[in-house]
Write a structure and sequence with these properties.
The protein is mainly alpha-helical. The protein has seven helices and two strands, in the order βαααβαααα. The chain starts with a strand and ends with a helix.
Length: 126
């Protein structure tokens, strides 16, 4: 069985609204660096096992790389900076430009949370 799943494009992630939603949802999960790395590896394995086709919004295939190829730091320290928020507000402290990893966060949200999936489908008109 071939399941289709859409991932936001880099162009979409450059829009503050989309970037914020992914950041906000991931931050609110409260998952540690090591657990998130494990969850992303498991997600990648699920895609292979369940024959999932991941597409960009324009219909082009999204290349599923090994998580170790994308995240070279075994401690995943980058994640701590990504989820950090500004002291006086509800916004990211940094605007991280590792869109390849953020796309995986988006895939994780879609795979595990249907309310986020619906929000992205409506906004991106998928």
């Amino acid at each position: 069985m071939n399941n289709k799943l859409y991932v936001v494009s880099v162009e979409h992630l450059r829009k503050p609204f989309i970037y914020f939603i992914v950041w906000f949802e991931i931050r609110n999960l409260g998952i540690s660096r090591q657990k998130m790395l494990e969850k992303l590896s498991l997600l990648q394995a699920n895609f292979v096992r369940e024959d999932v086709t991941v597409l960009l919004p324009n219909g082009e295939p999204f290349e599923i790389l090994e998580i170790d190829e994308i995240i070279s730091d075994p401690e995943f320290r980058w994640y701590s900076n990504y989820i950090k928020q500004k002291p006086l507000g509800l916004f990211p402290f940094y605007h991280c430009k590792r869109y390849d990893i953020i796309q995986w966060f988006h895939l994780y949200l879609q795979w595990n949370r249907s309310d986020t999936t619906d929000l992205f489908k409506n906004y991106l008109k998928l």
